[in-house]
Amino acid sequence: MKKTAIALCLLAVPSLAMAQDDRGAYLGFSKVATVNDDCSDCDTSGTGFEAGFYFNKIVGIEAKFADTEFDDDSSVDAEFKYFGANIGHTFNTSWVRFYGKAGAVSVKMKDSYWNESETDESLALGVGVTFTPFAHQSGVYFKIESLAAEVFDDSIGYSQITIGYQF
């Protein structure tokens, strides 16, 4: 609830300064879903948070955290942590940015029924697109992205839809 209140405050307050086209920090809140290619009952959904910084038009870094719950078993949930590079370009538009990403992901599975947990780390690769609908008149953005990784000897796909603000 606290995260939702912060997001609404960020979006409701008029922009104090124009967003930088080339660089700047950003924060976003996400709806997250994962798909496990090797286990049809292991799909999850939940919410996430991201923070990052664009150094220029092409390179940025970001961190993500997501808390998800198994769709078929509410006693099992997964925490996803990601840190990596975001490399893309606007291709001479002021409202859309396509990018690729590479980084590290850590997944912690927790079973509250059996009181057990395990963690695994892996390389993660992904693609995405960021839409800035007001052409940098405001820092509001929407993002659609997908990551792939292999954790716990399974191939997983991580997708998110994000709304955020670039400062």
Automatic annotation (TrEMBL):
InterPro entries: Beta-barrel_OMP, OMP/PagP_B-barrel. Residues 1-19 form the signal peptide. The keyword Nuclease does not apply. Residues 5-164 form the Outer membrane protein beta-barrel domain. Pfam families: OMP_b-brl (PF13505). The keyword NADP does not apply. Keywords: Signal. This is Porin family protein. It comes from Cellvibrio fontiphilus.
